[in-house]
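Preliminary data (for renewal application), heme C complex.
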Amino acid sequence: MSAQAVRRTLVFAFALSFGAAFAVQQVQAQAAKEPKTVVLKGSPMGGVKFEHTLHTKDRNIKCDTCHHASKPEKAKTSDYQKCTDCHTKVATAPMKTKTQAAFHDPMAKKGVCVDCHLAENAKGKKAPTSKCADCHKKEHV
Ligand code: HEC
Ligand code: HEC
Ligand code: HEC
Ligand code: HEC
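Predicted structure:
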């Protein structure tokens, strides 16, 4: 390679890495905008209203507590993708975890929401646990 070609390659590599860093920053800026409230529909018992910012900002819960890392059975196509894009009503192989199981077991005694709520309630908080209608409400449809 001539000296000039080396220089051109270096400039190009620098521009590439700069572009990549910029793209990462943009993704993070977009990701920070979580919806304030999400109403999860699907259950015949009624929709579940989930206060996002109350959980993340006020209670300082990390995003990846719920938005888990990509897994091989079905890789993510974007950060913070909807759970229901992958966890469908009925799980079809290679997926094993259907919608309900992504959130809780049949009696709502375990799961991402309930585990934390039980731990918080043991410390005197009042977060909804196995009383179905505390989360699933007919008015949230
Ligand atoms: C306690 C659990 C929990 C935490 C913590 C959490 N999220 Fe979420 N998030 C959810 C649920 C549940 C949904 C709704 C998913 C669905 O509709 O299937 C959601 C939806 C989203 C969506 C909308 C996805 C779409 O395409 O509609 C974005 C964006 C998002 N979250 C970003 C974040 C960010 C950023 C953080 C951290 C600052 C965060 N979330 C923390 C549970 C959580
Ligand atoms: C891009 C697809 C995808 C998205 C989006 C997604 N998951 Fe998953 N999830 C998977 C895969 C793949 C597995 C592993 C295979 C299985 O259990 O079906 C999994 C497994 C799980 C499990 C089983 C326990 C474990 O960790 O292995 C839970 C619980 C879960 N996800 C909850 C959620 C919740 C809650 C959300 C939304 C906040 C979510 N997932 C979003 C793909 C996804
Ligand atoms: C890491 C802990 C944690 C996780 C995970 C979590 N929560 Fe909570 N949640 C809390 C705390 C703390 C409270 C407030 C209890 C209080 O103030 O007495 C709460 C309260 C609530 C309430 C009552 C209204 C409100 O927002 O104050 C609802 C509804 C709720 N959570 C839904 C959910 C759902 C749905 C999920 C799962 C997608 C979830 N939570 C996951 C900690 C958590
Ligand atoms: C802490 C809140 C919470 C409690 C308590 C709770 N759930 Fe859920 N449940 C959810 C969330 C969030 C989802 C996902 C959104 C959806 O599918 O409606 C869900 C999903 C489900 C689904 C799957 C619906 C579908 O779309 O396939 C069923 C069935 C269900 N719950 C039944 C129950 C029953 C029965 C109880 C009481 C024993 C209960 N839930 C208690 C939060 C809760």
